[in-house]
From TrEMBL:
Residue ranges annotated for the Ketoreductase domain, each copy included: 7-180
SUPFAM superfamilies, per database record: NAD(P)-binding Rossmann-fold domains
Name of this chain's protein: Beta-ketoacyl-ACP reductase
InterPro entries: KR_dom, NAD(P)-bd_dom_sf, SDR, SDR_fam
Pfam families xrefs: adh_short_C2
Keywords recorded for this protein, A-Z: Oxidoreductase
Family label: Belongs to the short-chain dehydrogenases/reductases (SDR) family.
Residues forming coiled coils: none
Tree of life domain: Bacteria
Organism encoding this protein: Rothia amarae
CDD domains with a match to the protein in the record: BKR_SDR_c (cd05333)
GO-annotated molecular function: oxidoreductase activity
Length: 238
């Protein structure tokens, strides 16, 4: 497709934080942007559909609503995720399975549904939002790290299955980002984290969005199965 042709974009969990920045970047590029949200009021700045990535029927209903409005999803950003941090010895099994069901199986559900339209179109871009923790590890995050690391295998398997159909699947692994979650951390804690980052600062959500929109563009058409860290050097290629 011509680079300036509007495409249908879906960003799961696009109502706040990194997801909202990604959705905004696609909107500013002229695309038809849809987001999912799970609770609260529907955001008014995008075409928002209420959906729960833990529920296949909910995901299917969301896609039907999007397809009726804009047609098949051409660019999917699997961003929705949760954390339930706890040290391994104290972590309940439900703490582990809940995070896996949302972050990993949830990504599977939205990707599988998106590929139906992409296969018919014979093109598509799938971008999975992982984390530096998925490659680097993190104390108290066995569940979260596992879910985010597994997205790499998912993207690479999708690449081997669908690469010949002009469908790419890549992973973006953000580090520490300036969001509401990091803003509430004590200044001493923030300073400690920044000392471990070669760049010496947290990233802005827009810096993640820039990488995601580039991966969705024609410029990145020959990139698939890749993991791109956006972490200021924290992970050093792990």
């Amino acid at each position: 497709m011509p680079e300036n042709t509007p495409q249908t974009v879906l960003v799961t969990g696009g109502n706040r934080g990194i997801g909202h920045a990604i959705a905004t970047a696609f909107k500013e590029a002229g695309h038809n942007v849809c987001i999912t949200y799970r609770s609260g009021e529907a955001p008014t700045d995008f075409f928002a559909v209420k959906a729960d990535v833990r529920d296949s029927a909910s995901i299917d209903a969301a896609y039907k609503e999007i397809e009726a409005k804009f047609g098949p999803v051409e660019i999917l950003v699997a961003n929705a995720g949760i954390t339930k941090d706890m040290l391994l010895m104290r972590m309940k099994e439900t703490d582990f399975t809940d995070v896996i069901d949302t972050n990993l199986t949830g990504a599977f559900r939205v990707i599988q549904r998106a590929t139906k339209g992409m296969l018919k179109l014979k093109r598509g871009r799938i971008i999975l939002i992982s984390s530096v923790v998925g490659l680097y590890g993190g104390p108290g995050q066995v569940n979260y790290s596992s879910s985010k690391a597994a997205l790499v295998g998912m993207a690479r398997s999708i690449t081997r299955e669908l690469g010949a159909r002009n469908i790419t699947a890549n992973v973006v692994a953000p580090g520490f980002i300036n969001t509401e979650m990091t803003a509430v951390l004590p200044e001493e804690t923030q300073a400690k984290y920044k000392e471990s980052i070669p760049a010496g600062r947290f990233a802005e959500p827009e810096e993640i969005a820039n990488v995601v929109t580039w991966l969705a563009s024609d410029q990145a058409a020959y990139i698939s199965g890749a993991v791109i860290p956006v972490d200021g050097g924290l992970g050093m290629g792990h």
